[in-house]
Amino acid sequence: MLRPEIIAWDFDGVLNRNIFAGRFLWADHFEVELGLPLDSFQNFVFHSGRFKEVLRGKLDLTDVLAAWCREVDCPISAQELMDYWFSRDVYPDQMLLDVLRQVQARHVIATNNEAHRARYIMDVMGYVDYVEHMFAAGPMGTPKPERSFFAAIESWSQRPASVHLLVDDLEVNIEAAREAGWQAFHYSDATRPDLMKSLGCL
Fold it and tell me: For residues 35 and 29, is the Cβ–Cβ distance under 8 A?
């Protein structure tokens, strides 16, 4: 691996250790704490195609949540539901936060998140103090693994594709980065030590 100038970190499943055995941990207590049907929520938001539109900036997440709240006669507002969801999805990886401080590179977040959570990640979770910029699918109007996502980062950095490194937990994104001429590292608990070593952190 060449020494990267720009390291683009995926958020969920990498900087944020919020996925275990393929499930998002925020969902574990959804029904108990809110008294609302998790399956209905996930089907309406994620499995209906609506969230794909949210990630392209074509739908606003608040409007989608409000529509679901009306469907199930939800006792809380869409904003309260979103606040609950985001607050239960906070699992920062302290070791990687240390890497962001230690490794001499331009660090950015490269994530398939929509606009509201992108702001939450930067401002509430405090990642604005760790990275130079966030590239989020919703505000950009294009998600990973589309080539335009990587092109937007290159346009921002004004550097060749070959000096960019994507750290991501999804193989499809890794393959897309490599096809774009980037370096890429497929992140998991098993490969974590290899990343630390390659970045000079071990």
Answer: no
Could you tell me the pTM of the whole model? 0.95
Backbone angles phi and psi of 196, in degrees to 5: -60, -45
DSSP state, residue 121:
I
Two tokens at 46? 């994620």
How far is residue 29's CA from residue 64's CA, in Å, rounded to a whole number?
21
How many whole angstroms separate alpha carbon 128 and alpha carbon 37? 34
Nearest to 10 by CA among 87, 111, 108: 111
- pLDDT, mean over the chain: 95
The pLDDT tens digits of the residues spanning 46-65 come to: 999 999 999 999 999 999 99
Q: Are 83 and 120 in contact (CB under 8 A)?
A: no
- Is the pLDDT at 202 greater than 80? The verdict is no
Instruction: Identify which of 103, 113, 101 has the alpha carbon closest to the alpha carbon of residue 16.
Output: 113
Asked if 24 contacts 89 with a C-beta cutoff of 8 angstroms, the reply is yes
